[in-house]
Structures are given as structure tokens and as C-alpha cells.
Amino acid sequence: MDSRLIDKTVDLLLGADHVVVLTGAGISTESGVPDFRSPGGIWERYDPTMFFIERFLSDPEEVWRCMLDMHRSSEFTLWDAKPNRGHRALAYLEEVRIVKAVITQNVDNLHQKAGNRTVIEFHGNMLFARCLKCRQKYGYEEVLQDLEKNFTPRCRCGGILKPDAVFFGEAIPQDALKRSFREADECDLMLVIGTSAQVEPAASLPRIAKGMHSLLRGLGGIPLMKPRCSVIEINWEPTPLTGDVSDFLIQGRSGDVLSAIEQKIREKKG
Ligand code: APR
After folding, report:
1. Distance in angstroms (rounded) separating the CA atoms of residues 228 and 226
2. Does residue 236 have its Cβ closer than 6 Å to ligand 1?
3. Of these four, 172, 229, 234, 252, which has the most CB atoms within 10 Å of its CB?
């Protein structure tokens, strides 16, 4: 963990006007929630097509059985996972009004459990289920009881309930999409934490922050670069953003890096 880059990040955080954070599954691995693409990740344990919307609509019982298997698995914590030092550091940065919003690709509710209030759930939230007919929302515990009896939980209106995470082939919730694009466009500093930056449209947010997707175009169609914005990655390995979009990568465990940043800011704030 490069302490010079930590110090540089602390100075940028203290000097920025609008800091936005984009997180991926990597920030939750220290809470026991596997990420998707690292060795031993979720896509090594479960077939990703299980989370295609067409598959759910054609056989909801099969998908709910898989969800129950995940819930019962001893190697897999999601529903009862606890926030780790990385989540708590981001809650502190929002509490001291440095971080304006956390855009998360995660569906584990851990930023909210840690205390962040402005959390944009880009891929929904697996701790809830929603009726496909009337859109009524249910807590997971409520659905689990039903699941033990019949593998296709239903809403009081009779509609089928679906986990409230965004499945492959489903649209990103409009409100989350709009707010995320606006935050990325307005920020002057974006922390990109624990994401492989391989899944669109979330992976475009750092590019929008850098003004590389600027919708504004000047003479001759040249994009008008938005005012200076720094993009800083925190990851234990480089990603497609490294060296292309991000200003620099702090290579390390997100919990270590974020708690070091929190510590230095607490010291500076006295
Ligand atoms: N500290 C720092 N980085 C970590 C840590 C850690 N403790 N653990 C994992 N990482 C990094 C990995 O190196 C990887 O770059 O986090 C990243 C996790 O990448 P993915 O597993 O691809 O997760 P994510 O980027 O969130 O996936 C995006 O893909 O499958 C879909 O909907 C799913 O939201 C998910 C999306």
C-alpha cells in the first residue's frame, strides 16, 4: 500500500468540492461476501445464467431454489453480512461531508448498514423482493418463510415475487441511472473501489467523471472536457480503467486503504 498515494488521496479529498464513490463487490469481500470474478468468486460457484431475467421468468422456482441454497450455504454470507472497515470509512467520509454520494453495484445493503445515507443502488438490493405485477416490495425474511413452503413466493395480489436485484437483461432502475450519471458528471473527484469495471453501464461512470463521455461538444464535435476531475482506484489489482481513465491506482485491500485514509483525515480534522 503506497503511503504517498494515500497522502495524495487525503489531500485531494480535503480539497474537492463534490466527491462521489463508485463501489463494486471487492469492498464487501472482507465482510465474507465473495466477489464475482476473483478466484472462488460467485461466478465459479453459481451459473450466471441463473440470473438472466429470461430464465427467471421461464422458471422462477428454479431461481428461488438457488437463492435458498445461497442463503443456506455456509461459505456464502450476504443476508447477514456485516459492514467492514472499508464501509465504515465511507460512512465517516459522508458524515464529515466529504463524500456526497456512494454509487454501488453491490446488492448487499452494506453501505446502508454502515451508515451511509446517500447510496445509489445501481443494481438493486438482494435483501428485498418485489412483485412483478404490482411492484410491492417485501423484506427478504418475509419471503424466506414463504420459500420454505413453496418455491415461488407470491405477492398478496397474486403476482410472482422476484429478488429486487437487477438481473442480466433487465434495465438499470431509471432513477438510479439518472442520479448516477448526474453525480458522475458533477463530481470533481471519484473514488472507484473494488470493481473490475467490466460491466456496463456502471463501468462508464468513471469515464463520465473524467469528461470522456461528455455529452457537450464544441466546434467540430470535439467533446468539451468537463472541469478537472480526479479518478482514483482502490483495488488489489489493476483494472481496464488503470492507466487509461484513473489518475492512479492504490493497490491494496480496500479495508486497509480506506481505514488508512480515514485515520489521516481524522488526524487532520483533529
Ligand atoms: N480489496 C480491493 N479490491 C478487491 C478486494 C479487496 N478486499 N476483493 C476483491 N477486489 C477487487 C478484485 O480484484 C476485482 O477487481 O474487486 C473487483 C471485483 O470485481 P468483480 O468480482 O467483477 O465485481 P464487480 O466489479 O462489482 O462486478 C460488477 O458484475 O456480475 C455483475 O452484477 C454483478 O454488480 C456486479 C457487476
Report:
1. 6
2. yes
3. 234
